Amino acid sequence: MSMQDDYDVLVIGGGPGGLSAAIKAKELGLRPLLIENREILGGIPLQCIHTGFGIHYFKEDLTGTELTYRLLDKFEELDIDYYTGAHVTDFASVSYLEKKVRVITAKGILDITTPTIIYAAGARERHAFDIRITGDRSAGIYTAGEAQTMMDVEGIMPGREIVIVGSGDVGLIMARRFALEGAKVKAVIETMPYPGGLLRNVVQCLYDHNIPLHLNTSVTRVIGKKRVEKVIISQVDGDLRPVPGTEGEIECDTIIIAAGLRPYLPLLESKDVIIDPATGGPVVNDYLETSIPGVFASGNALVINDLVDHVLEQGERAAEGAYTFIKNKGLPTVRFKRMIKGKNIRLIVPQYLSGDKDAIIYARVIKPMRDIAVCFPEIEKKINLPAVRPAEMIKVKLGKNEITRSKNGIRMELVHL
Questions:
Q1: Domain end marker among 259, 294, 309
Q2: CA-CA distance, 185 to 405, in Å (whole number)?
Q3: 232 is in which domain, residue-wise?
Q4: Per-residue pLDDT for 194 more than 80?
Q5: Are residues 28 and 106 in the same domain?
Q6: Same structural domain for residues 214 and 165?
Q7: Treating both helix axes as pointing N-terminal to C-terminal, what angle do 308-327 and 16-27 enclose, rounded to 10 degrees?
Q8: How far apart are CA 158 and CA 138, in angstroms?
Q9: Integer Cα distance of 139 and 137 in angstroms
Q10: Which of 22, 82, 210, 235 has its CB surrounded by the most CB atoms within 10 Å?
Q11: What CA–CA distances, in Å, run from 350 to 106, 128, 223, 285, 297?
């Protein structure tokens, strides 16, 4: 069975990034189709019953579920076409303005023609093998997202004596969730000398519940025959290697891996899209267009965000990019200015600026700093900040007139005041 239809925009992914992109595309007068491989729309925030969502975008402190349903209500109001339980298996650029996309759905195979694609497939969690934890392969080892799904969707308690590996935001939130359910969170283990999550989560989830945080420490081995019985931990040196003679052990029955996320890009990687090693996502310009003309990226498939508000903004900007691409039959052929990583800057998105419009820059630092200025020397712009942390995204707006001051690249760096 094969069906064919034409759409202006094909959105891959039904989480916040995909929903906001489809909504914005429809509001701009385009005809979008959204494809989601799960059976329901909403993405990960649907299972997040804690607050902290939408503070900037909706100007309200919402739970992940509340934010999701606000998006879904708008999505349904606009009567946007979508398929759930569907998979995009391949796409090919027939011409600069035409792409053929194959989608497998419960109703059959769709062969869709579209000039633009917005890739918003999110991210995957790092698991125990990604962070090289050795030892027994016992029951009781979960990623933080798995544990969250079990507790907040399925109503299943994964364990009672918990060690959390990594201090990412989901891990911190799950530490609090376990504590509220009466479990004993023995420790949160972090290899870096600073927490990996937002400061507000460190305070609200760990300090407020007296949960120990061990920095410069790694889990080196899991011990347990059928079920996890304990973990061996060690202090690490400046190269994050275990220091001999510093070993210790923590008895537990459950290990939660909260070692961060990576953009999920198998479809784009199969098309040899250019990847930025720093972000793990595609290299994009300020329209959020990838190295494939007419293919845009947003949300955690572009760069790992710590706020869903940024994901929603990126979805809208990708839709605006698709609209410009269709309206002008391609994006403006200009000499893009490259964003250059300066002192203490680990990653920057977007990597190239056209100078045709204002741009939003997202960046992360390598290490924490206090009393600093974010500087763009080539355009003589400086923004003072009290502090920066690797876990907290820096967001800066560069005006069109500012961008055009530079003839070539624009360097972003941090300097002490």
A1: 259
A2: 53
A3: 127-259
A4: yes
A5: yes
A6: yes
A7: 40
A8: 14
A9: 7
A10: 22
A11: 36, 31, 44, 5, 11
- pLDDT score for 2: 42
Shared-domain flag, residues 180 and 221: yes
Please check whether residues 63 and 165 belong to one and the same domain. Answer: no
Which pLDDT score is estimated for 204?
A: 94
CATH code where residue 161 lies = 3.50.50.60
In a shared domain, residues 7 and 115: yes
Distance CA 416, CA 134 (A): 41
Last residue of a domain, which of 286, 309, 331? 331
Identify whether residues 132 and 219 lie together within a single domain: yes
Rounded distance, CA 360 to CA 314, Å? 9
Measure the CA dihedral 276/282/284/288, to 10°.
Answer: -150
Residues 58 and 115 in one domain: yes
b/e 186-217 (16+ beta carbons within 10 angstroms → b): bbbbbbbeebbbbeebbebbbeeeebebbebb
Query: Which pair of structure tokens corresponds to residue 280?
Result: 């793990």
Residues 140 and 253 in one domain: yes
pLDDT in tens, 36-83: 999 999 999 999 999 999 999 999 999 999 999 999 999 999 999 999
pLDDT band at 5 (very low <50, low <70, confident <90, very high): low
Tens digits of per-residue pLDDT, 250-309? 999 999 999 889 999 999 999 999 999 999 999 999 999 999 999 999 999 999 999 999
Torsion of CA 27, 28, 30, 36, to 10 degrees: -50
